[in-house]
Amino acid sequence: MTPKVSRFLRDHAPATPCLVLDVDRVEENYRRLMAALPLARIYYAVKANPAAPVLERLVGLGSSFDAASWEEIEACLAAGSRPEGISFGNTVKKESAIRAAYAAGVRMFAFDSEAELRKLARSAPGARVYCRILVGNVGAEWPLSKKFGCELEMARELMILAGELGLDPFGLSFHVGSQQTRTDAYEAAIAKVAMLFTDLRDAGVKVRMVNLGGGYPVRYRSEVPEIDDFGAAIMGAMTEHFGNALPEIVIEPGRFMVGDAGVVSAEVVLVSRKAKDDPVRWVYLDIGRFGGLAETEGEAIKYAFRTPHDGEVDGPVTIAGPTCDSTDTLYEKANYRLPLSLDCGDRVELLATGAYVTTYASQAFNGFRPLAEHYV
Ligand SMILES: Cc1ncc(COP(=O)(O)O)c(C=O)c1O
């Protein structure tokens, strides 16, 4: 938790549940990433946290943006981004959204299928397009494999077709999975993309850009490699495979940029046991899966907790949200322990929750309002 977030919580005691996010930390993260990968152009993955103060700060720093929808493009434009600084990175787009983006001046689009490519040829003529390939997601705590990307052979054919359809076959992309904890995941993906680069060059298609996607991790309960380790592994692999004919390098960090800038402040609503002698207490918070903690699905992302009783004797807990849906149970198997003195009404903090929380909150499931947000 940054000192600014901690001061805000102390001085304002905002109603819970809420996210408090330090925008200066976002700037620090942007600068750290630039230092780790100085040759890469940063396209912030807006989906991680699309709040105006975040986007405006990043526009001021010269960031570009990876948008998943027309609505995210509008948010970037409203924050002051130039349309040329926006990539429409979702491989699944309504044609009306492509048309709107193109009319607004967006000229870079992702695809991973022929049908999508044909939509782009119709509705974004001449645009720069890049094909997403399937790569391994081993090491990712929030994998993105299978749903997006295509096999190399198909990508090769589609990139050739892109040129024939009057589009600019600009680049290739991949995503090694979010909260990727292994630097070698990027090395393997870069090797794969480099093979396709060569094949395409032999086929007369001069690809100029490699988009390494996101995945750069945040420290939750466990240590993760430093961003400089990712930078070194990535640049090592790029140089190994491309020599000094490096293509343009794009990265699309989401989680890394905003994750550790934010803290969710929540209230303990109930502490109970299912039997008198049950060693496991159930701790119910006023935020759960439907309040924005969607990444606790399968206990994939394991947030760290702070309580007013840290350091006291603790015991095993199951942690759950406040709604009447039993899937609104956050952690049952991940061996969470919380202080025995934790009680109803205590405030607890969930650390590093600046990414993928606010926009996952439901409108009013069980009547609960979406998560409140404070940007400091
Ligand atoms: C196309 C694309 N780029 C970038 C990201 C951001 O990934 P991360 O938050 O792991 O950096 C995502 C996440 O879903 C994505 O789908």
Automatic annotation (TrEMBL):
Catalysed reaction, written as an equation: L-ornithine + H(+) = putrescine + CO2
SUPFAM superfamilies in the cross-refs: Alanine racemase C-terminal domain-like (SSF50621), PLP-binding barrel (SSF51419)
EC number: 4.1.1.17
Required co-factors: pyridoxal 5'-phosphate
Pathway, per record: Amine and polyamine biosynthesis; putrescine biosynthesis via L-ornithine pathway; putrescine from L-ornithine: step 1/1
Domain Orn/DAP/Arg decarboxylase 2 N-terminal residues, every copy: 24-258
Keywords from the UniProt entry: Lyase, Pyridoxal phosphate
Enzyme class at the top of the EC tree: lyase
Any one Pfam family match given in the protein's UniProt record, by short name: Orn_Arg_deC_N
Entry keyword annotation includes Cell cycle: no
Keyword Membrane annotated: no
Similarity comment: Belongs to the Orn/Lys/Arg decarboxylase class-II family.
Protein name: ornithine decarboxylase
Species the sequence originates in: Belnapia arida
Taxonomic placement: Bacteria, Pseudomonadati, Pseudomonadota, Alphaproteobacteria, Acetobacterales
